[in-house]
Automatic annotation (TrEMBL):
Highest taxon in the source lineage: Bacteria
GO cellular component entries: cytoplasm
Stretches of the chain forming a coiled coil according to its record: none
SUPFAM superfamilies according to UniProt: Nucleotide-binding domain (SSF51971)
Gene3D superfamilies: D-Amino Acid Oxidase, subunit A, domain 2 (3.30.9.10), FAD/NAD(P)-binding domain (3.50.50.60)
Protein name stated in the entry: FAD-dependent oxidoreductase
PANTHER family the record matches: SARCOSINE DEHYDROGENASE-RELATED (PTHR13847)
Domain FAD dependent oxidoreductase stretches: 2-327
Length: 347
């Protein structure tokens, strides 16, 4: 089969790789001068989230697939992508601590909640907190490197086009094969992230869109060797900087960084760090969220040649490997998509 993938962020990359590995021909188109969530994300894999310390949706299924699939992509792209990193989060008060301990007693959470975690250099670099909890099975995926390395490989293979895809240029009457750029395809997979709201075939789905801003900062001290969450996330990067973030806003006039959120993040960071820091970058992008907080996969109800892979939301790093596997099974073998992620749930 011949596939055209519109949008080569994390979603487009993973489904494209799976299709190629299954023997299909894939062409990619993206306009990388636009902001993309995948270019800004820290790629944190955090199985325990929220104030009530609950396990993320389907995390027991997502984690093994993610680890194995990113390891495979490491070999394919010949660079590290998956980092097993302990995650330490602060517990603000006794109430938090009690909730944490109670949750940790639940057998379904065995291995996920760690009391009295190793703190590494956290006490040397940050203000003391009431208590700390450790999250097991945490990791970081270098999504940005993955997407960039994959893009340059596809570019060198002549399978990637640098262009803003204009929907009017897709020649498609619903009967013949869709055609774009003088070539026809069996199916087109739309992976445009939050911009899918402008897609004429899939724009009516309940797309959300949550803007996030982050800082990249440097300190003079040797960096932490673990993920740390205290008001903001501090994510040590291989180049010695930290990713610090992120803000979250469902209403936004544009996808650019703002002075107000830069100040907000700097203030939070000053509340956490005891050492001076310098901001070396400030970035923003929009997460492709969905109102019911589940991914959106599947073919257009009337046009089976048009497919969507979207809605990775705030947890693309852990979701995308299994979601792309489900989508491949659906495309290749007609396997039913789970109702929770199929776009049929909206029709
Ligand atoms: C600040 C921030 C922090 C985050 N942190 C984390 C985290 O720690 N862990 C985690 O798991 N997730 C995180 N996420 C979420 C994660 O980034 C997303 O879930 C994931 O990257 C979404 O991938 P995507 O491919 O669907 O969308 P995107 O990465 O946005 O990719 C969409 C692509 O489509 C292209 N495109 C769109 N329209 C067109 C068009 N018409 N023509 C050509 N190209 C087009 C865009 O250029 C873009 O490259 C974060 C997101 C943000 C914004």
């Amino acid at each position: 089969m011949d596939y055209l993938i519109v949008g080569q962020g994390l979603a487009g990359t993973l489904i494209g790789y799976r299709l190629e590995r299954a023997g299909h021909a894939v062409t990619y188109v993206d306009a990388p001068e636009q902001t993309a969530a995948s270019a800004v994300a820290a790629g944190i894999v955090n199985p325990i989230t929220g104030r009530r310390f609950v396990k993320s949706w389907r995390i027991d299924d997502l984690l093994p697939e993610a680890r194995q699939f990113y390891r495979e992509l490491e070999s394919y792209l010949d660079r590290p992508l998956w980092y097993d990193l302990p995650l330490v989060r602060t517990l603000f008060n006794r109430g938090d601590e009690n909730d944490w301990l109670a949750r940790g007693g639940d057998p379904a959470y065995a291995g996920y909640l760690i009391d009295r975690p190793q703190l590494g250099r956290i006490p040397q670099l940050t203000r003391p907190a009431h208590a700390y909890g450790g999250v097991g099975h945490s990791a970081r995926v270098d999504i940005c490197t993955l997407v960039e390395a994959f893009r340059s490989r596809k570019r060198s293979e002549g399978a990637y086009f640098d262009a803003a895809f204009d929907y009017d240029e897709l020649l498609f009457d619903g009967r013949s094969r869709p055609e774009w750029g003088g070539r026809s395809y069996d199916q087109v997979i739309f992976c445009e992230g939050w911009r899918a709201r402008y897609n004429p075939w899939f724009g009516d789905l309940p797309h959300g869109g949550t803007k996030g801003e982050v800082l990249i900062v440097r300190t003079e001290e040797p960096p932490l060797d673990r993920l740390f969450k205290h008001r903001v996330f501090l994510v040590p990067q291989p180049d010695g900087t930290y990713w610090v973030g992120a803000t979250s806003s469902n209403r936004f006039p544009d996808d650019r960084p703002t002075a107000a959120n830069r100040s907000y993040l700097e203030e939070r960071l000053r509340e956490v760090l005891t050492v001076p820091f310098a901001v070396v970058d400030h970035q923003a992008a929009v997460r492709p969220t969905v109102r019911d907080r589940r991914p959106m996969l599947g073919a257009h109800p009337d046009q089976p040649a048009l497919i969507i892979f979207n809605g990775l939301g705030t947890k693309g790093a852990s979701l995308a490997p299994l979601m792309s596997k489900w989508l491949l099974g659906h495309l290749e073998n007609g396997e039913e998509l789970p109702a929770e992620v199929s776009i049929r749930r909206f029709t």
